Amino acid sequence: MRPLTEAETRTVFEKLGKYIGENIQLLVDRPDGTYCFRLHRDRVYYLSEKLLKLAASVPRESLVALGTCFGKFTKSQKFRLRVTALDFLAPYAKVGHGPELAPLPRPLTAPHGYAPLLQYKVWVKPGSEQSFLYGNHVLKSGLGRITENTAQYQGVVVYSMADVPLGFGVAAKSTQECRKVDPLAIVVFHQADVGEYVRNEDTLT
Amino acid sequence: MAAVRVEAVLAAAEEQEAEKRRSITVEKELELEYDLGNLLAVDRNPPPAAALRGAGPRREALLQALARDNTQLLVSQLWELPAERAGGAGGPLVAQLPEPTFRLPREKPPPKPRPPTRWEQFARLKGIRRKKKTSLVWDEQAKEWRRRWGYRRAGGDPSRAWLAEVPAGADPEEDQFARLRREKRERVARNELNRLRNLARAHRAGSTVPAAPLHPTGHQDRDELRRVARVARVSTASLGRFQPRLPKEPAEPPSRSGGKKRRFEPLLGNLAAERSRQLEMLRDMSSKKPVLDITRAVNKQMRQEEAEAAAANKGKKQSKRGKRGRRQQRPGRSGKKSGARRQPQQQKAAGGGTGG
């Protein structure tokens, strides 16, 4: 377990910035406690200082996971975001759906006066919900709705038509282009979905 | 009685004043020469020679009095310098010393010149002198002035030479290109060896030329220079702990393994510092983003164009007198008809605009 180096922090922030923009400083600088990022076996974890001190006393081989896993670094030092980060990237109050996780602290929601962290949403038709949950990209034929003004390569949260969050992705085309493109083109790249909880049950830390 | 006593008291007080004043005034025949920058005072008055002869307590007392007087004069001069209070109103009074005028002698012996190299000795022997060479040479093939060596040199790029003649008397099976490459490598190596030998000789002879790796040449690459700079920083009495850094040089902690092992920040190190560093990085990253988001601007433009196109289409479909129909602010000539036609078209145009 070690802190992230400068280059690694930059990569992680750039990736997170695609989803929440400048609000990363809400993650870094929280009034209710000191939270930090730590790297353990190529996975990036987000945890409070109290938890960090407890985890520091566990030997390295026996330590499985700590705090919340945001994602992992691949062998070529690219950062892949995991679905376990969804709760920190999407607005929390989502009609009671979503996986059971520890309650988020208040600063990440409205009372701070910031806009909701994630504004770009994509709704997927029921037919291609399952396809997305299996890890495939979203095609134009499966696209239900998309937020206006989505730029290309913008981080988005993927919902089903019933407003259930399914995961997140990256918009492959801007909203304008989405209208003009043919039905078999990819409109949202898959990044993480809640199906991972079942598929990668043993490797998801 | 009382008057006598008062007088006695006054006389005593006056005597005390005189004593005080006497202690700060010194009589000298010749004025002293002062160099206040060096806190130096030179007394050219001849000392009473008879008193200085022979050691003894009288001599000591005389010398002490002389020293005290001269010091008093120097201090009086110092008090006349312009002074100010350092550190605000309550700070100490600091005098501003002028520039020193007295040249102090050398502390260490002057540096010895470096001994001549082997070539320099030979050249001196033979009387060979340096010929100043021009920087540009006329290249007949390219018909222009080219450098003597380096990028785009005269005589073409040696790495692209496609022909290497077999010289008379050489083995026909030998690879000429390989031979040329080998000979160049040998020449370079020999040159380097001789350079190092010269440096070692100079170093041994005790001149102030520094040891080989630290000797700056024009041919060192960036990594070598960085290494040399690190060595130079560390070769101070405090092992480089208080050396100032250049503006863009990163502050790196001294690595005990000499840069071979990767070192990370401590796990539970200063979390507040880590946080501030991350916030700083975020600020940098967000400041670099362009204020005008080009994709959004393009999208907005496309939307507008679409809306206009949709409106234009609807307008054309409506009537032959499309121009009249589309324009919404037009002085009505035939009031009722145009008014009636205008309204449905307005609605349609508005619908087309929002739908597009």
What distinguishing features does this structure have?
heterodimer, A: 205 residues, Nuclear Transport Factor 2, Chain: A, Archaeosine Trna-guanine Transglycosylase, Chain: A, domain 4, six-stranded mixed β-sheet, 11 strands, B: 356 residues, mainly alpha, two-stranded antiparallel ribbon, two-stranded antiparallel sheet, flat
Question: How are the secondary structure elements laid out?
Answer:
The complex is a heterodimer of chains A (205) and B (356).
Chain A: E1 2-3, H1 6-20, H2 24-28, E2 35-40, E3 43-48, H3 49-55, E4 68-73, E5 79-81, H4 86-89, E6 121-124, H5 129-133, E7 138-139, E8 143-146, E9 155-160, E10 165-171, H6 175-180, E11 186-193, H7 196-199
Chain B: H1 2-24, E1 33-35, E2 40-42, H2 49-52, H3 57-79, E3 83-85, E4 93-95, H4 118-126, E5 136-139, E6 144-147, H5 176-204, H6 222-234, H7 271-288, H8 294-318, H9 322-326, H10 335-355
Antiparallel strand pairs in B: 1-2, 3-4, 5-6
Helix pairs in contact in B: 8-10
**How many helical stretches of chain A?**
7
Largest interface: A-B, 28 and 22 residues
Shape, principal axes of CA atoms of chain B: flat
The average pLDDT score of chain B comes to 79
Number of domains of chain A: 2
Across the major sheet of chain A, the strand order is 7-11-10-9-6-8
Taking Cα atoms only, what radius of gyration of chain A do you get, to the nearest Å?
17 Å
**Structural class by secondary-structure content of chain B:** mainly alpha
State the helix count of chain B. 10
H-E string of chain A: EHHEEHEEHEHEEEEHEH
| Largest sheet strand order of chain B | 1-2
CATH topology of the largest domain in chain A: Nuclear Transport Factor 2, Chain: A
GO cellular component, one term (chain A): nucleolus
Pfam family, one (chain A): pre-PUA_NIP7
Function (chain A): Required for proper 34S pre-rRNA processing and 60S ribosome subunit assembly.
Family (chain A): Belongs to the NIP7 family.
